[in-house]
Amino acid sequence: MTTIEGNYFGGSYPIAVPASITFRDREVGLAAGSVAACYKADQLKVSPRVGSTCRFVTLPGGGQFECADHALLDSLPQESRSEGLVAWLEQRWAVALAGVALMFVILLVGYFFGLPAAAKHVAYRIPLETERSLGYKTLAYMDKRKWLRPTSLDFDIQEKIKAPFYRLCSDLPQGKYYHLEFRNGGILGSNAIALPGGFIIITDEMVETAEEMEELMAVLAHEIGHVELRHTMRSVLQSSAIGVIAAAVTSDAATISAAVTGLPVLLAQTKYSRDFETAADDYAFALLEQKGYSPQAFATIMERLSQKHDQNMRPTAWISTHPVTSERVERARNAAAGTSGSAN
Question: Same domain for 86 and 139?
Answer without folding.
Answer: no
